[in-house]
From TrEMBL:
The lineage of its organism: Bacteria, Pseudomonadati, Bacteroidota, Flavobacteriia, Flavobacteriales. PROSITE patterns: RNASE_H_2 (PS51975). It catalyses: Endonucleolytic cleavage to 5'-phosphomonoester. Belongs to the RNase HII family. This is Ribonuclease HII. HAMAP family: RNase_HII_B. It comes from Flavobacterium suzhouense. It comes from the Bacteria. Residues 10-200 form the RNase H type-2 domain. InterPro entries: RNase_HII, RNase_HII/HIII, RNase_HII/HIII_dom, RNaseH-like_sf, RNaseH_sf.
Length: 201
């Protein structure tokens, strides 16, 4: 059973990201403030849910939320500031776009940097403990999946529709065969032997 509140403050936001371990595509974050009486059957950490359940939950979460925001941080920025900083930046930007401004932030994971002096707590496995983080994880994951499905049409040979940019054997084989795209993260270990990659875009 997920808890509805960590801080006891009314406008508490939960935030989470998706796509941190991918070789291609953005890292996507969501932040959300839920009403006190929020209840939604099946809501859990997005990784525990099937794609169909996540897609069904998204409109229900959005409809019931007080406010929410989603942000994609593109591979160029990930390469420039590293994936940890890009993940934190994505979550921070989401929080800055919330209206009302949250009184407290709960973050999935163990690393974060303050936003506008709003107090925060990092919660390991927070997406399986608190409703707002679970809701943010579903939004981040579904919006990122939509993005990967869209760019799959441009580069179908990498099968992003299926692997969503994660380092599957099939994805690595496609990189070996076709090289990389503008959507790949050049700072990541794209192949076990980096010397084999042609960076000529």
């Amino acid at each position: 059973m997920l808890s509805s509140n960590f801080s006891g403050l009314q406008n508490e936001t939960g935030t989470d990201e998706a796509g941190r371990g991918c070789l291609a595509g953005p890292v996507t974050a969501a932040a959300i403030i839920l009403p006190e009486d929020f209840k939604l059957e099946l809501l859990n950490d997005s990784k525990q849910l099937s794609e169909k359940v996540r897609e069904n939950l998204r409109p229900l979460i959005q409809e019931k939320a007080i406010c929410y925001h989603i942000i994609h941080i593109e591979p160029e920025i990930i390469d420039e500031i590293n994936i940890l900083n890009a993940s934190i930046k994505a979550m921070q930007e989401c929080i800055k776009n919330l209206n009302p401004t949250p009184d407290y932030i709960i973050v999935d994971g163990n690393r974060f940097k303050p936003v506008d002096n709003i107090p925060h707590s990092c919660i390991i496995k927070g997406d399986s403990k608190y409703l707002s983080i679970a809701a943010a994880s579903v939004l981040a994951k579904t919006y990122r999946d939509d993005y990967m499905n869209m760019i799959h049409e441009e580069y179908p040979m990498y099968n992003w529709k299926k692997n969503k940019g994660y380092p599957t054997t099939e994805h690595r084989e496609a990189i070996r065969k076709y090289g990389i795209t503008k959507y790949h993260r050049k700072s990541f270990r794209l192949l076990p032997n980096q010397l084999e990659i042609d960076f000529g875009l």
